[in-house]
Design a protein that fits this description.
Number of strands: 0
Strand content: under 5%
Length: 89
């Protein structure tokens, strides 16, 4: 019985997604970090408006958003570098 390689499923446009997928993920870092920071500060300002804790909600929201942004950046960079190293031709 001879070994037969399975055909690739959904290889894309000439391997476009395989080649440019990690690059697109890294380029999305700025958008991801901006959204995380904006959500954190927005939620903090909303908490300030609701409970009257003027600078504390926005400050904590800023740190929460920054933590979320760093965590997402770490995940994106780890995934894209792993895909690049393990999926290299």
């Amino acid at each position: 019985m001879c070994y037969k390689e399975r055909p690739r499923v959904n290889a894309g446009f000439g391997g476009f997604s395989r080649r440019w997928g990690p690059v697109a993920e890294v380029l999305s870092l700025g958008l991801t970090m901006g959204i995380c920071l904006a959500l954190g500060i927005g939620i903090g300002v909303a908490v300030d408006g609701r409970f009257g804790t003027s600078p504390w909600g926005a400050g904590l929201g800023l740190f929460w958003g920054l933590g979320a942004a760093v965590a997402q950046a770490w995940r994106i960079l780890a995934r894209s570098s792993g895909a690049r190293i393990n999926g290299s031709d």
